[in-house]
Amino acid sequence: MPAGANRRVKGLRRSEVAVLAGLSFEYYTRLERGAISGASGQVLESIARALRLDDAERAHLFDLAQAAGPAARPPRRRSSKSYVPHQSLQWALDAVTAGPAFVRNGRMDLLAGNPLMRAF
């Protein structure tokens, strides 16, 4: 990578390592932050090549991935039971009569709503 004039420190940036390794920036960032359990040998090899790791450093990278791999399990699926809002929450939503009102969770699932929202 060519040296830029606006660099405060020496070395590669995350985005440059990702490009050299042939990975997306987001995936490389997840790996760098420790989510290495699902990384394949090819991915680890490309990272080692991009970073020019020596044999000991490469072995350490693969050891980290192996330690994270077998023990790590995929996230459990949530149960499919439907959410029942607390009665006071439903009363508050039903009190909104000027327009639709609803509650969502972090996954943007619709959890509860007033009659205008259901009609909408």
TrEMBL record:
Q: Which InterPro entries does its entry note?
A: Cro/C1-type_HTH, Lambda_DNA-bd_dom_sf
Which residue range or ranges hold the HTH cro/C1-type domain?
7-58
Please name the Pfam families in this protein's record: HTH_31
* SUPFAM superfamilies, per the entry: lambda repressor-like DNA-binding domains
Q: Which domain of life is it from?
A: Bacteria
**PANTHER family for this protein:** BLL4672 PROTEIN, BLL4672 PROTEIN-RELATED
Listed name of the protein: HTH cro/C1-type domain-containing protein
What organism is the protein native to?
Pseudarthrobacter scleromae
